[in-house]
Amino acid sequence: MPQRRGLLRGGAVASDPPRAHRRTGRPGRRLSRAGAAVTRVGIITQARMTSTRLPGKVLLTAGSRSMLDHHIDRLLESGLPIVVATTTNSTDDPLAALGEARGVRVFRGSESDVLGRFAAAAVDAGLDVVVRVTSDCPLIDPALIVEGVARFAELDDPEAHVSNVLQRTFPRGFDFEVFSTAALLDADRVATLPAEREHVTPYLYTPREGRSRTHAITQTRDASKYRITLDTPADLLLIRTLIEQHGAAALTAAEIIALLDAHPEIAAINGEVEQKKLGD
């Protein structure tokens, strides 16, 4: 496979996305190098109403706002363009309507082939670099996303895969992955396993000759035992407690972790929930 070198280089961050893709007052970001075309970076978040363990979860509320609204609020703080990638099912019409009402781009594609949906969304939005997140993370920390994008730029490697997922020290609920659209399109062309199509990135981060160089964003303290993602009624209760009783919608990842450290009774709310495994 030919190498696509020189995609990014750490350097100036310019603010100039197409106006249709941004919310007023929150500019998108592009990474550029002197004398080279500007590289467009954006966030794609997947969302659907048909969750098996908690149907309609992203429209459930905490503090009078939907989980998807909280999620978009946090993502907007990154300054990056956002794409809500949902399905063509009529059940997901409310998600598309919410995204459009919030002024973010909406892309609709296959429910089961999420890899294909992401690839098409990236092309539709004109992205060169994708930040992948999921909408069941209403308290995702935008500063972590910015750190991941900066790391990707510094690496100047289109085959790099930057994330805080594969070497987990952050709680579930702050997950992100950064990779090039070119690598995503390669995966879309050749990935065949159901888990690869459904979960988007397994093909990208599985080691292969000449590609898939993973780079971890970690913290010194391992807080991976905590769970701040939304997939079960217990998760919902924990997130509502954090937002409604402790103002977590305005807290950083470090502050939320410190809050859980100080209140083990909150962490215990969903402490017994098991994460669904790849392929489940």
The rounded Rg comes to 18 Å
**Low-confidence sequence ranges:** 1-28, 32-37
* Element-level helix/strand string: EEEEEHEHEHEHEEHHHEHHH
Count of helix runs: 10
In terms of structural class, how would the helical and strand content be classed? alpha/beta
The assembly state of the depicted protein chains is single chain
Task: Walk me through the structure.
This protein has ten helices and eleven strands. It is an alpha/beta fold and about 280 residues long. Strands 1, 2, 3, 6, 7, 8, 9, 10 and 11 form a nine-stranded mixed beta sheet that branches. Helix 3 (about 115-125) packs antiparallel against helix 5. The two termini are about 30 Å apart.
Give me a quick take on this structure.
By secondary structure, the chain is of the alpha/beta class.
List the helices and strands and how they pair.
Elements: E1 13-14, E2 30-31, E3 39-46, E4 61-62, E5 65-66, H1 67-76, E6 82-87, H2 93-101, E7 105-109, H3 114-125, E8 129-134, H4 142-155, E9 160-163, E10 177-180, H5 181-190, H6 194-199, H7 202-205, E11 213-216, H8 233-246, H9 253-262, H10 264-267
Parallel strand pairs: 3-6, 3-8, 6-7, 9-11
Antiparallel strand pairs: 1-2, 2-3, 4-5, 8-10, 9-10
Helix pairs in contact: 3-5
